[in-house]
Amino acid sequence: MKMIIDILQISRDAREAKHRFDDVIDCSIGMFIDEDGFVGGLPVVFDAFKHMPPELLIPYPSVDGGQPFKDNVFKWVFQAYEQKIQDSFNYFVCATPGGSGAVAAVLRTQVPKGEQVLVSDIRWQYDRFSEPAGIFLHSHELFDGDKFNFASFKKELSYLCKKQNKVVVIVNDPCQNPSGYTLTFEEWEQILSILNEHSSNEIVLLYDIAYIDYSCEIDQRRKASALVNLKDHVQIFVTFSGSKTFGAYGMRMGALIGLSRKADFLKDAREKVLALARGMWSATPTPAIELLNLMFEEERKPDFLQGLAKARQTIIRRGHLFLKQAQEVDLPLVPYINGFYTIVKCPNSYACYEKLAKNHIYAVPVEQGIRIALCSLSLKDIDGLALKLKSIMFCS
Length: 396
Known about the structure:
- By secondary structure, the protein is of the alpha/beta class.
- It has two domains: 7-40 and 312-393, Aspartate Aminotransferase, domain 1, CATH 3.90.1150.10; 61-295, Aspartate Aminotransferase, domain 2.
- Helix content is 44%, strand content 17%.
- It has 16 helices and 14 strands.
- Strand 3 (116-120), helix 6 (127-133) and strand 4 (136-140) form a beta-alpha-beta unit.
- The longest helix has 28 residues, at 301-328.
């Protein structure tokens, strides 16, 4: 059974400790905080929210977010490849309360009760959505050394395909949460090729791109363009987290994009998602929908893009510094490329968590070790952190 940890409680413990000690390092917060301590790191977003008129804050929105929202999300997610995707697939877009709402919508509408979903052993807490839905997660090993484990992925997918006609496969990339690993384009192509091999089954790819806009890849959308190479038996759901992209975590801004060459499948999928939305969360908050739309207006978009680029570079610099110093002190990490998080490997993660907390370092225990949220730590806090972790976690 997966370890379920109350991350918010750990963050509360860290905040309380800061009132009593001046050396607290809070590695638990899963939000980007810039070098000046600004949560979200995008002043243009906060400024737009502060000045939103009542008509953009108060009324009920369309359940799916409305046409401007849907158009803006689709353009943003696929960017230079928008036309290529439109030419290859039928599609729909639906607003969701955060990227997590999009994930929940897929698991609730695409997986029959009692069946299993394929996901990596190192993963975000998808368990919180699968358990209430009455479905189960089946793991493949994420890594073989410092690369993606294709042997395990193929083996476990084949196992599920023999048991079930429909198999939902979750891939969280780039900047996988919580490892910080990003697939190479060649690894991504091979994953898609493996999905294509199972033509006797209906395969549903849940492509979780929550952290796409913080990836160090030169072309962050190139992998999305490769979706056109999937065969007709593979249906695609892209889950987008506006909470991450716009640094608006509490606004619960997200979207689900469905892609399929089968018009009947897509029509049915859209109807199920809309019915779920009406019955479960009614509608995504109006301010979240309108805030996203405002960011794509001509007068704001340049400032938004500039702010996002700065936030992305900050995340990359933090990762580079931590990785460099971790290598210098031989601190064991799972394979890390860049992103919000990384994991320090240790055999007894809860014991390590307690050691760190006693030394005023608050991080999140996961099955493979200790998750460090680099996204919320300043470069000053990161400098020297690897040595502190090594000294505390691995002392006798």
